[in-house]
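Hi X.,

You mentioned you wanted examples for the new student's onboarding notes, showing what a folding record looks like when two proteins sit in one file. Here is a clean example. The first protein comes first, with its sequence line followed by its structure tokens.
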Amino acid sequence: GVKSENEKFAGGLYTTTIEGYIPTTGRGIQAATSHCLGQNFAKMFGISFEDPQGPLPNGEARPPLHAWQNSWGLTTRSLGVMIMIHGDDKGLVLPPRVASVQVIVIPCGINAKTSDEDKAAVEERVADILKQLKKAGIRAKSDDRTTYTVGYKFNHWELRGVPLRLEVGPKDVSNNQVLAARRDNGEKTTIQHAELVKGVRDLLDTVQSDMFTRAKATRDANVAHIVDWKDFVPALDDKKICLIPWCETPACEDEIKEKSARTNIATAEVQDEKAPSMGAKSLCIPLEQPQDKPIVAGETKCVSCGKDAKRWALFGRSY
């Protein structure tokens, strides 16, 4: 959406933003911004160019025009937002499209009683799997360390958020299959070796889609449509972000932040004790406004100050 006057880049015309929602704390977080700076800075610093359409009376130089400027910010902060949204108690949970390692292949079922032939067969199969996946452009690697247990390796790569784990043991080799385990939900399935690349690629696509769908559903379920101020702070305390009819004035935003700050933090949650005492600020004015409850000019009133509302705006406690 678009940032409010208070939250936009100082000196610019307007700022657009991508806002994340962290369900664990119920707080919004800015992931990326784009600023239309207009001509303000060009005029201050003398950034100009000749008007290609300008007149040339008597051979004079074309008149100058001041440049329109933009500024974009998309940094590693977005990775932090992604980690906070998808991570769980085991560690990172990375979407396949951005994971540096998409598939980890781990030899399993090998112990002191395993024959040399079976060990060699597993090693050969793991090498073949890696060769096929890498050739197909899938970022894969194997963990063939012999000084660690299989369970240790599972935890090692789960902690790092690798989207898909392939387990290969003597029985899998004889059955011409691999056991695939998803990092996002722990589900396991078998993939036939003859359909390895297609099966892995389809599974990675499914993980990517499911992670997005779950995150979006969680976000949507925690957007509270508020039309009465008495419901605003309780919604915030319930870890929701509030979509409200708003007048868009800076003074009103300051008032909302002040009125929604909680002075009694005795019930604050341990994992984020600053959040309950923090007042709500505008996250953005969504580019896609609610179609079922359009703002009616002169009728729809701002939830906070009672003046005429201009658009629906998202407010929430924020990082």
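Then the second protein repeats the pattern, sequence line and then tokens:
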Amino acid sequence: PTAYRNHVFCLPDSDLSMRTLSTPSPALIFPPNSPGFQNGRGSSTSSSSVTGETVAMVHSPPPTRLTHPLIRLASKHQKEQANIDRLPDHSIIQIFSFLPTNQLCRCARVCRRWYNLAWDPRLWRTIRLTGETINVDRALKVLTRRLCQDTPNVCLMLETVTVSGCRRLTDRGLYTIAQCCPELRRLEVSGCYNISNEAVFDVVSLCPNLEHLDVSGCSKVTCISLTREASIKLSPLHGKQISIRYLDMTDCFVLEDEGLHTIAAHCTQLTHLYLRRCVRITDEGLRYLMIYCTSIKELSVSDCRFVSDFGMREIAKLESRLRYLSIAHCSRITDVGIRYIAKYCSKLRYLNARGCEGITDHGVEYLAKNCTKLKSLDIGKCPLVSDTGLEFLALNCFNLKRLSLKSCESITGQGLQIVAANCFDLQMLNVQDCEVSVDALRFVKRHCKRCIIEHTNPAFF
């Protein structure tokens, strides 16, 4: 008991110890059987055996030196100053900057000096929490309370919160962030499927500087909008008040055209939008998007099976602003859609059209002749693309660095040789499941020395 007089272990349903300590410091995040949750002999404390879930620990600043009777017998060598203690404060802070949030909180428990350094405001511009067992709601509450100590109820230094794959993050945790972190600029909650629209609305309404939002895998999120209260205050210009530029809604399966319409109307400054596997999106949703969001540079509608050539006609309205486009596995897209993109989006740098089986050599020809600055192209699993299409690429796209032809049944070694003889900067070539000879692969290697070739030919090394 003497050794733990200054430490209080708090389960998620108790706030008593937090109210009794003037400067609480959460030591996140110790599962019951981890080394950081054990006493000096390596056995678990009594508190860790109460429950099988992760708990938050709140403690006072560590004493300057330990006074446990068993430690008084330390040898002279043990009393000597450790090498790391000889480092100046700024060096230790630099080391701490590379640690995730839970490890940084552990460092705060080592000694008084480390406690003071670990809570340096420069280290708390970012909070990163990962893991399925972490009680994220509790952790965010404790952390923000500690970070708001000098500025009550407001955490001015926190700019980034990354919580990935934490199934125990709920709306309560996002409410905490929204209310305490008005300077938040980046929020990533990918794979946290328990959060809903209401909590996301609160974040975007109360954090006016938010620019980067990742809600990929959050299946309950159907749109991005301001709360009703915020909309009333900002009306009629509230649609231009959300400053989000980067939005990732990958695997938000229930997102529909109407939700995309709402997003477009409220997030007019979008430059990066990812809608991978949003299977309910159609060409109509893309039409809404192009009305409001005219600054998009990167767009992904991969696996959106209802997107067709009409959707490509809408996307082509972005013209030279579009640099990145992914339409992988959109089986309704043909040469017609590719022609729209090639004609109007001349500055396209990246195109992923894997699995678009309606694309032929004619589509590749349009693309090669109009998008001459193309650097990355994936036309894998396009069985109608042959050596003729590769020849158009080789004679027009000299800056090509990455080319994927995986499972292109009509490709031969002759087409690869033409590409290698003209695209000297090629760095990656995927010809898996293609009928190409070893001699052709060797030819590519001789002419493109920095090229990494992915293949399935066991005779080529």
